[in-house]
Each structure stands twice: as structure tokens, then as C-alpha cells.
User: Which sequence fits this backbone?
């Protein structure tokens, strides 16, 4: 009896509108919160996603991609000779301070890589732009970070320590939500900055303390000339990744090797635990669900009460409770679906707005949308229980009362 | 003719203690298959109660009702509902049509309940409305129909799938006497065509002439079956 479900529902337009507004609110909260979470998790692993390396070799103490200890430069060469390794490239991730125009300081993560290499590319940048990084004292940043660094565009300069360096190209969509500002540079440049600039001893570095203005100044004592953060590995075509991974661990004592997926997981898990973001965002989504359930439950109950004589009539005619429940469930599902569409549109709009205004990644993927739809349908059906109980209690004898 | 419905020793007491009301007292009744039986009696005499018990909607305090060899008073609530679905049709004083549905959809809903779906339900609802003389209003909603028209739609609905028994409680009470009479005559004619038994409760002595038999209820007891 889908048509009865639908027609009873649209009979009272005002009420339907209220129900849909409630569902829209819930859908938007669920989708946006889940989207922020998905965006957060994705953004935490951006640096890893931007690399096409199969395996990351690093110090055994690595906590997450931005926090690790140096490994000797020789490991790069050693890695190249390990069986199953197609190519190996160096990468350095260090923390430092950037002094932009008007002497404004910004905590930065310097990502040093080989611009001629193939295993890392900082977002959508052209080969020509990458090539510019080969020049001395040049760097590249994410468009979203320009204002944080007090820069206006390509050609602007700033300082790390006593070195003045020039912005030569821009990228976008590479900045993790919770990290210090990323700047990208070629490895020789990176060494120059870190030799000269005030950096933080990675062993005792606390990114949150740094955010709150604690002095940065400990000179990098580890001699960047002789150290790397990562050796990025591409395995030979057809080689078994786990085998290569184990071979690398054996060949390079004191290091660890992670597959790309493992590296992503370690980093994402670190940030999830560090920030408790899943709980916070989950709480927001739960509020949406509760409000949605209250509205939908109330509307369905009132609708059933209004049509109680009709439900009684169906019972007299021999309809089972389940037949009547199906009508109510159908109404709940219809409301969920009809309310879902505007809800998800609002969420998409909010996501676009967040990206445009703050460069904040709210990731409403088809999977996120599908999950929100599932939760919404579940929410609506669950909130139909009171209406269903009401129908169960109806005595068909009421139909003969005038 | 076979006995379509057999009631024995029905008692119905509402409530308990001082507040209890004895609505039926030792009612026994046989209804022949295909018969149009009219039950009359003053207000409060227990007519609706008797109809509800015979239709398996209300459980008697004591006594039994057999319909086509099934003791419906012994059925569980769920089985009784299923029995009503398969064997009974209903016409109500207040029509009880579904406001959000058109006349045709109201009939289709009953067919749907009885397991007829899709194109078959559309064709059958059309035939039923046609035989009730109301097919020209098939697309109209109950709010746009007159009382007589609404009752024709209910009769079409009650006759969906030719039930063994059609129960009608005061089917003319909301109608003027002329359309009331026409509606009852229609119900009789259609029931006879299909071989349905009809059990009508009414106050209205003018419709007694469509009955094959009239029985009287007073204070919960059946008076001697009066001849027509
Ligand atoms: N649910 C109930 N609870 C208590 N008493 C009831 C209930 N239903 C009916 N009664 C009482 O039982 C008696 C018979 O009621 P019933 O409705 O069967 O009479 P009726 O003949 O159909 O009356 P009317 O012609 O006014 O419809 C009345 O005294 C009524 O007050
Ligand atoms: Mg009555």
C-alpha cells in the first residue's frame, strides 16, 4: 500500500514540511560532521597520498609522518641495492620558523624532496613549477597558506634563519587541517635552511606547545647534511611488497619500513587519538540524529492519530498489525529519502563554502552520503516505533462508534 | 440452503463490578447462506455489539460463533483478523473511506488487502464501481462525493473478492431516506448476484422491506424471529 503511505503523508503539506526540515537538519549535521571527519582523516595523510612510493623507510621511533628522527643519508644508497627495489628517493620533513613580510613568524614544516624524482609531488603542480625549485633559495606553498605566512603570491620573499628565500610557485589542497604550515623545497635548499634557521629538536618537539607560542630556538644538532627523514621506495614491477619491505628492514638496521597504507594508517590513527576528533564530531552527529528522531517521531505519531479511524477500519477489514506497520515504515522511509536530498545538497554547499572560505576539507564522498542516507533511514524507521505501537493498540471495534 | 453463520449462547458483558453492562444475553442465531438479514432494535439494545461479535471483531464473554464451519470465537486475534480479511466485507455508518485516496484507490486498497494487486486490482475495482453505479466518480476523493455516493463506494469496497458475509452497521443513518433506500437495494442486489450473505443493523424500519428476514433485539436478547 505504498500509495496510501505516500498520500497520507502529503495530505498535510505543512506537517510534511516540518518533518522534512527536521530530517534535513539531521542529514546535514550527520553528513557535515562525517564529512569533516573524513576530510580530517584524509588531510592528515595528504603528504603520504601525494607520494607514489610503495614503501617508506624511516627511523624506528617514527610516530606519524611529521614526527620522526633522522636516518643516515647512506641508507638511501643502501636501499637502492636491496633486492626488489626499483628506485629510492630521499625526503626530509623538519620543523622550523618562517619570518614573512612585516616580520610575522609562522611555524612551518619544511618538506624537502627531489624535484627531479618521481615518488613525491606536492599536489597539482606543473613540471615547470617543480623545475623552478632547483634554483637556490626557492620554495613552494599551498595557496591556502598564503595569508598565514603573510604572503601575497609568487615572487614574495621571507626568511628562515638568515636565509632569504623566494616563493616560486603555488600548489593547492595539500595542507593538513591540524598541522603547521607546509612549505615544499628541493633537498639542497632544505639543507640550507635548516643549517641556518632556528629549528626545533625533533626529540622534544611538541607541536601544540609551539602553537601556543613557546620559544623555538634549539638549533638542529643533527647535522642535516648527513641525515634524512625518509627514504621513499618504489618496488620493482611484480615484486611482492611485503618481501621487499622485510628485505629493507634487514638491510638497513635501526630503521623501519612501512607500506604506503601502513604509513597512512599510522598517521591517521595518531591524529584521531591525539585530537579525539571522532568523538567530538560523533557527538555533533548524535545531536542531529536525536533532533531528527524527535521531529519525525512526533510527526508520524500525529499523522497516525489523525488517521486512527482509517487504521481501525483496515484492522476491521482484516489487515494485520504488520500490514499497518509497513505503511508507517514506508512513510518513514519516504520522509527519509525526500528529506535526504535537500539535506545532502545543503551539506555539499556547506562543504564548498568551507573549502572556499577556510580551505577546510569537508569530504562528502558518495560513501559519506550513502552512510548518511543509511543513518537517516534508520533514524526515521526507529522514530516510527511510537506510531507503530499506537496502531497496534487500536481496537478495530472503534470503527462502529459513530 | 446451508447455514452461513451459527451463533450459540452469546453473552457479552462490558466492564466489571458495579460498572458492568450486559450488552448481550444468551443470543443464539442461525443465518442462512445468501440470506439478507436485518437486525433491528432500540438504541443501546446491543445491535452493534452483536454485529461485532458475529464479525469476529469482539470476543463474547461466553458463547460461540461458527462461520462456514470455522469457530471464529476460538481464533486468536491474529487468526480472526485473517479470517475477516478472507471472508468478510464491511459497510459503515460513517463510510470510513480513506480521505487521501480516490474512490477507485479505496476499492483497490481492499483488493490489495485480499491479495489482488496491480492490473488485476485496477480492472476489478473498475468493475465493482461500475456495478455500484459510481464508476463515473472513480477518480474523485471522498470529500467531493455526496453521502449516497460515498456509501456506493463503500459497498463496492465491501464486495471486493465476493466475501461470504457483508456486515453493515447503520448503513443508511447518514443518508436521507431516498438515497438510503437506494443504497440498501443496491447492496441487496449485488449481494444476491454474488451469493453473499448480508447482515444489516438498522434503526430504519423503511429499509426492512429489502430483508429476507428481520430479527429484533431488545435489552441484549433476541425477540422471537418475526416474519416479514
Ligand atoms: N465499549 C463499551 N464499554 C462499555 N459499555 C459499552 C461499550 N460498548 C457498548 N456498551 C454498552 O452496551 C450496550 C449496547 O451497546 P451497542 O452499541 O451494542 O448498542 P446499539 O444497539 O448498537 O445502539 P445504537 O443503536 O445506539 O447504536 C449499551 O448499553 C452501551 O452503552
Ligand atoms: Mg450501534
Assistant:
Amino acid at each position: 500500500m505504498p500509495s496510501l503511505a505516500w498520500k497520507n503523508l502529503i495530505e498535510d503539506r505543512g506537517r510534511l514540511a516540518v518533518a522534512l526540515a527536521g530530517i534535513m537538519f539531521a542529514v546535514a549535521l550527520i553528513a557535515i560532521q562525517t564529512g569533516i571527519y573524513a576530510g580530517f582523516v584524509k588531510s592528515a595523510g595528504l603528504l603520504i597520498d601525494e607520494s607514489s612510493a610503495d614503501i617508506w623507510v624511516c627511523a624506528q621511533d617514527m610516530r606519524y609522518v611529521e614526527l620522526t628522527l633522522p636516518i643516515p643519508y647512506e641508507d638511501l644508497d643502501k636501499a637502492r641495492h636491496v633486492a626488489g627495489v626499483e628506485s629510492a628517493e630521499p625526503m626530509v620533513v623538519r620543523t622550523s620558523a618562517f619570518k614573512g613580510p612585516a616580520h610575522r613568524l609562522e611555524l612551518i614544516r619544511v618538506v624537502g624532496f627531489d624535484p627531479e624524482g618521481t615518488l613525491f609531488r606536492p599536489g597539482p603542480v606543473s613540471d615547470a613549477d617543480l623545475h623552478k625549485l632547483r634554483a637556490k633559495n626557492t620554495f613552494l606553498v599551498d595557496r591556502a597558506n598564503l595569508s598565514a605566512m603573510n604572503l601575497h603570491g609568487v615572487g614574495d620573499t621571507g626568511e628562515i634563519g638568515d636565509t632569504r628565500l623566494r616563493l616560486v610557485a603555488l600548489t593547492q589542497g595539500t595542507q593538513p587541517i591540524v598541522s603547521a604550515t607546509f612549505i615544499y623545497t628541493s633537498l639542497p635548499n632544505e639543507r640550507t635552511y635548516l643549517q641556518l634557521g632556528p629549528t626545533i629538536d625533533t626529540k622534544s618537539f611538541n607541536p601544540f606547545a609551539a602553537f601556543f607560542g613557546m620559544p623555538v630556538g634549539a638549533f638542529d644538532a643533527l647535522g642535516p647534511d648527513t641525515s634524512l627523514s625518509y627514504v621513499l621506495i618504489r618496488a620493482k614491477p611484480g615484486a611482492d611488497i611485503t618481501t621487499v619491505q622485510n628485505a629493507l628492514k634487514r638491510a638497513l638496521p635501526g630503521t623501519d619500513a612501512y607500506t604506503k597504507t601502513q604509513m597512512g594508517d599510522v598517521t591517521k590513527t595518531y591524529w584521531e587519538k591525539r585530537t579525539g576528533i571522532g568523538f567530538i564530531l560523533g557527538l555533533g552527529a548524535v545531536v542531529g540524529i536525536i533532533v531528527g528522531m524527535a521531529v519525525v517521531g512526533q510527526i508520524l505519531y500525529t499523522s497516525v492519530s489523525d488517521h486512527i479511524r482509517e487504521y481501525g477500519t483496515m484492522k476491521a477489514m482484516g489487515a494485520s498489525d504488520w500490514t499497518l506497520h509497513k505503511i508507517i515504515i514506508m512513510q518513514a522511509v519516504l520522509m527519509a529519502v525526500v528529506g535526504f536530498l535537500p539535506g545532502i545538497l545543503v551539506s555539499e554547499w556547506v562543504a564548498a563554502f568551507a573549502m572556499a572560505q577556510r580551505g577546510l576539507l569537508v569530504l562528502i564522498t558518495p560513501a559519506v552520503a550513502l552512510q548518511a542516507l543509511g543513518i537517516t533511514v534508520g533514524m526515521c524507521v526507529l522514530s516510527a516505533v511510537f506510531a507503530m505501537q499506537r496502531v497496534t493498540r487500536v481496537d478495530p471495534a472503534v470503527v462502529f462508534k459513530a | 440452503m446451508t447455514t452461513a453463520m451459527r451463533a450459540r449462547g452469546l453473552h457479552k458483558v462490558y466492564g466489571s463490578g458495579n460498572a458492568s453492562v450486559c450488552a448481550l444475553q444468551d443470543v443464539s442465531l442461525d443465518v442462512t447462506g445468501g440470506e439478507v438479514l436485518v437486525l433491528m432494535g432500540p438504541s443501546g439494545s446491543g445491535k452493534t455489539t452483536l454485529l461485532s461479535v458475529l464479525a469476529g471483531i469482539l470476543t463474547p464473554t461466553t458463547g460461540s460463533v461458527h462461520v462456514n464451519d470455522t469457530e471464529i470465537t476460538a481464533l486468536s486475534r491474529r487468526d480472526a483478523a485473517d479470517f475477516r480479511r478472507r471472508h468478510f466485507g464491511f459497510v459503515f455508518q460513517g463510510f470510513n473511506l480513506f480521505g487521501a485516496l480516490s474512490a477507485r484507490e479505496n476499492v483497490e486498497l481492499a483488493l490489495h488487502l485480499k491479495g489482488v494487486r496491480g492490473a488485476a486490482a485496477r480492472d476489478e475495482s473498475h468493475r465493482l464501481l461500475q456495478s455500484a453505479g459510481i464508476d463515473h466518480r472513480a477518480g474523485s476523493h471522498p470529500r467531493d462525493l455526496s453521502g449516497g455516493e460515498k456509501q456506493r463506494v463503500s459497498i463496492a469496497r465491501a464486495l471486493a473478492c465476493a466475501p461470504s458475509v457483508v456486515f453493515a452497521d447503520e448503513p443508511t443513518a447518514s443518508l436521507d431516506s431516498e438515497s438510503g433506500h437506494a443504497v440498501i437495494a443496491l447492496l441487496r442486489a449485488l449481494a444476491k448476484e454474488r451469493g453473499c450473505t448480508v447482515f444489516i443493523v438498522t434503526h430504519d424500519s423503511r429499509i426492512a422491506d429489502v430483508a429476507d428476514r428481520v430479527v429484533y433485539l431488545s435489552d441484549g436478547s433476541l425477540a422471537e424471529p418475526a416474519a416479514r
